[in-house]
Amino acid sequence: MLCLLMFHLLQIGCLVFIAARASKLVPLGFTSATQLHAQRLEIIQITSESRELEKVLEGGIETGSITEIYGEFRSGKTQLCHTLCVTCQVRGFLCSSYHTFASLLFIRK
To answer: Where is the RecA family profile domain (predicted)?
Structure first.
């Protein structure tokens, strides 16, 4: 029971970390449609090199967004994060991945 509680606390801590990092990148407050349109034009979609996954993601993983990748044990989550990290670095982006109970990928221009 204690292990399960610790696991849930770790999950909550990770989500709080992601939310804190995202809140620093995304300013809160009023945004006009013109500003929003300009921000959307700067978004780049990173390809996973998989046609089927691109259909599901509607073109790729977007910069400036949080995309959750989950699945069964040994289903390829970590491999996908590593592949995306290399794809980003080849294109000149800063990229790092973190692996705890889930795989996290951060992409910056």
So the answer is: 42-109
